[in-house]
Structure formats: C-alpha cells, structure tokens
Amino acid sequence: MDEHLDDLDRALMALPLAEPPRDLRAKILARTIARPVAVFSTVEIWLIVTVGALVLWLGGLVALDAHALATRIAGGWNLVSARLDTLMTPSILTWAAVGGAIALWIVFFQAAVLRRATRA
C-alpha cells in the first residue's frame, strides 16, 4: 500500500494528529440534526416584513395628512385602471402566466430537492 506514496505523503502521514475536542460530536449534532426548528419559514418572514412595511407606510401617510392619502389613493386607482386596459392583452397575460408557472415550478422543485437532501 505504501509503494505509491512519495516522500511528501510519507512525511504528512508521519505527523502526529491532534486529539479532537471532547464535545466535537455533540457540537456537530447540535448544528446539523438536533438544531432547533425555525418558527417561521422564509416565505412567512417575507410576508410579515412586507405587510409590516405597508402598514408603516400607510400609517405614515395617514399621520402626515389623511386628505392627501385619499387623494393619492384615488389618483393611483385612476392611473391603475387606465393602465389595466393596456396590460390585459392576451399575449401579455399568457407570458405572465408562463413566467409565474416557471417561477412556481422552480420554487417547488428546489424545495423538493432540499427536502430529499435533508432526509439523506
């Protein structure tokens, strides 16, 4: 077995090995298998942060001027309704559906791969 080793390999194998820490196994298990379960998933955290940001933004607008908020909402709705006519063409809706389906497929495929990897 030692016939194919060169001098460097023999020198490396002759080095004394340090003893591992006593609690090395416990630390590895604590960080991998026995780690605490997350309270919220990534999607839930994003939703909570997004809703919180919207609430803060709307709260700030109301605190500054409630009439200006109503005017902005009405103006925004008029702008949205005017733009919806151009966005509701069949080709745009088809491409949006295809893009959304691909994005969902990637998310679910990645989740399935991660689940399989954690089981192994």
Describe this protein's structure.
- The chain contains five helices and no strands.
- The chain has 120 residues and is mainly alpha-helical.
- Among the domains are: 38-88; 89-120.
- Helix 3 (42-64) crosses helix 4.
- It is elongated, with a radius of gyration of 29 Å.
- The mean pLDDT is 82.
The overall strand count is 0
Shape: elongated
Kindly state the mean pLDDT as a whole number?
82
Q: How would you spell out the order of helices and strands? A: HHHHH
Radius of gyration: 29 Å
> How much strand?
under 5%
Distance between the termini: 33 Å
Helix content: over 70%
The parts where pLDDT drops under 50 for at least 5 residues are: none
Largest sheet, strands/sense/barrel: none
Structure class: mainly alpha
Write a brief structural summary.
The protein has 120 residues and is mainly alpha-helical. The chain is built from 5 helices and no strands.
Furnish the topology, listing elements before pairings.
Layout: H1 7-14, H2 24-31, H3 42-64, H4 66-87, H5 90-119
Helix pairs in contact: 3-4
Summary tags:
mainly alpha, 76% helix, 5 helices, 120 residues
